[in-house]
Amino acid sequence: MRLGVLVSGRGSNLAAVLEARIPGIEPVLVVSNRPGVPALEVAARHDVPAIVLRRADHADAGARDRAIGEALTSARVDVALLAGYDQVLRDGYFDAFAGRTINIHPSLLPAHGGAGMVGLAVHRSVLEAGDPETGVTIHEVTRDLDGGPVLAQARVTVEAGDDPGSLAARVLREEHRLLVETLRELAATRS
C-alpha cells in the first residue's frame, strides 16, 4: 500500500509510522503546507521524498489543494494520511485524488471536531466541557469536516489537574499507537 502523508508541524505521527516499518506499507511521499517544519526532517531521515505546497504559491487555497491531490496521484498513492495536517481540504483535493484519505484527530469524534478544532484547541475544549475522557479517532476524510466514517478510536482518561499540554501529551502517545495499529490492519486487509 503506497502511503502519502500530509503534515504541517513536528511530524511525531509521521515518525511513529516510519519507525514502525509496517509490513505492506510503502511511504512514498510527504507533503507539507509549511517549509522548514520538523516533519520534513523526519521524512529526510527516512529517505521519503517530500515536497512543500504552500498556499502562497497558488492562486487560492483550492488550487493548492488540487496540487496536493495531483502530487499524490502522480506518486501513485493508495492511501493519504493527514498526520497533524492543519488545513481543511477543499473540493480541488477530492477532485484530483481518488485514493483513500484518512485522518487522525485528538478527540473522540464527533465530540470536539469541526472548524478550529486542531492542536491544543481540542484539548482546551475537552477540559472546558468537563469531559471525563477524551481520546483519538482515526476516520475517513470526506468533504464533511471531521464527519467521515470512524475506522478506530482509543479512549484516554482526563485526570485531575490536567491542562491542555498534559492532556495533549497523553493523547499523542495513544495517537502513535493507534495509528500504527490501524495502518497495519489496513495493509493486512489489502494483501
Can you give a write-up of this model?
With 191 residues, the protein is α/β, with parallel strands linked by helices. It has a single domain (2-105, 138-151, 175-190), classed as Formyl transferase, N-terminal domain (Rossmann fold), CATH 3.40.50.170. It is 39% helix and 22% strand. The protein has a seven-stranded mixed β-sheet, sandwiched between helices. The mean pLDDT is 95.
In brief:
With 191 residues, this protein is of the alpha/beta class.
Approximate shape? globular
Query: For the largest beta sheet, what order do the strands appear in spatially?
Result: 3-2-1-4-5-6-7
What is the terminal separation in angstroms?
9 Å
- Overall pLDDT metric: 95
- The secondary-structure element order is EHEHEHEHEHEEH
Q: Tell me which oligomeric state these chains represent.
A: single chain
What kind of sheet is the major sheet?
7 strands, mixed
Query: CATH topology, which one?
Result: Rossmann fold
Tell me the structural class. Answer: alpha/beta
In CATH, the architecture is 3-Layer(aba) Sandwich
How much of the sequence lies in strands comes to 15-25%
Overall helicity: 25-40%
CATH class type: Alpha Beta
